[in-house]
Amino acid sequence: MPLTMKELLLVQDNIKMTENSIKFMDACSQMAVDPQVKGLCQSMVREHQQDLQKLIGHVNSSTTVQ
User: Fold this and answer.
1) I want to staple 65 with a disulfide (CB 3.0 to 4.6 A). Which of 2, 13, 35, 49 is the partner?
2) pTM
């Protein structure tokens, strides 16, 4: 289904926010000393990476309409 330009811009903004979340959670994971906290952060990174792939897929699979 084609996205409107507004929808496309919203998805692109969401992609940027997700990328920032991945970077933040990855940094938290690297700084964490507690193994449970480290594991939680790593899990969140994986989940956000999956979300990012879905968002990118939406952008790649759609054409925009005016």
Assistant:
1) 2
2) 0.85
CB 18 within 8 A of CB 51: yes
Task: Give the count of beta carbons closer than 10 Å to the beta carbon of residue 48.
Answer: 20
pLDDT single digits (tens) 2-52: 888 898 899 999 999 999 999 999 999 999 999 999 999 999 999 999 999
Q: Which residue has the tokens 């690297």?
A: 30
Q: How many domains does the chain have?
A: 1
The set of residues, in sequence order, having a beta carbon less than 8 Å from that of 61 and lying 6+ positions away, is: none
How many CB atoms are closer than 10 A to CB 20? 11
DSSP line for 1-66: -PEEHHHHHHHHHHHHHHHHHHHHHHHHHHH--SHHHHHHHHHHHHHHHHHHHHHHHHHHH--EE-
